[in-house]
Design goal:
six-stranded parallel β-sheet; single chain; 403 residues; alpha/beta; two-stranded antiparallel sheet
Length: 403
Amino acid sequence: MFCSGTAPATIIPSDTYINQHTLHCAALAAGSAADAAVRVVRGEAACGAAIIRPPGHHAESNTAMGFCFFNNAAVAARAAQAAGAERVLILDWDVHHGNGTQHIFEADPSVLYISLHRYDRGNFYPGTGAAEEVGRGRGAGFTVNVPWDAANIGNGDYMAAMHDVVLPIVREFAPSLILISAGFDAAEGDPIGGCCLTPDCFGSMTAQLMPIAPTVLLLEGGYNLLSTAVSTAACLRVLLGEEPPQLPARPSAFGWLAIQAAKKAHSRYWACLAGAFPQLHARALAQAQLRLAGSGDGVPAGAEFGDEYEEDDWEDEGEDEGEHNEGVQQDEAAADVEVQQRWQSRLSSVRQSAAGGQGVSGASAAPAHYDGRHAAAATAAAGGGEAPGRARGLRRLQQQQRR
């Protein structure tokens, strides 16, 4: 569908639905994001949040897509700059890459765009966001992508990405304002995202950013109402001053690969990463990518680097797996019910806490650090042995992660 008038034609693809109320709602969403950003820049509020729909990070300058019509974060960034913010960070933790936000700012060094998202070697919607996409022209280096090539990415992967990539670059960039494109479809139980983040993870990422610059949260995607509600509440409590739990930065195999790929792509642009990727490290990354290339697109992230899983978890492909299929399906159904019950419990806790008027304490921004496992990550990923792509072993890992 094409919408035109005095302005250039706007493309609306078939996967994005509109009715007579869409323009009004989309304008309210973009306006609310801009208003929250401007108020924080002017000092009228210490931080802000815009709980808005429709989302915006897929919207291009002339294309509505992915349920997005106006790019709320882009509108908010430009409004903030007009109000006096010199440099703006947009951190996008929605499970989908914000193609629109990246393209709008890819040549602009005054806006740093960082995205943590599923990529699955280009097979996860919208198919953009490779680590090598770093911006262009004067904006080269100001687009940072950490692309997960697997499902079941968890808290440890995001904490490691924050510690190794996001926070060092953000501190060097020194933004005047931080905008969070806060999609919650990477939360555990989301029917589309396939990842397993908890509310504490979203709260922790928010807390780590707040001491760097005034922070405004903008709601993006999320398709499980319970997980979206509880995760949003966790971030709002942090914005109001509550201290989130400390989480370990312990990446999975696929998580480690994504983080190293981002560091490699940006080691030439940021002083904080200049010495982080020696030649030996590059060789280990290449070997690890070859090892994991045979595991297929969208497979679970697998074991953390460490001693949790023994080698006999990976069975030979030739073994008969038919006898296990029925049990696996039953386990998966039970796991889905368990996830929903956990989210119900978390939502009840949030409601009880709010009803009880519990006070909040000062937020701590100390990032979680590796507990020593990262030192062995390159060796473990580049070492010998079978790649973690065996069907039976992957199902076992998925069941253990869900429990």
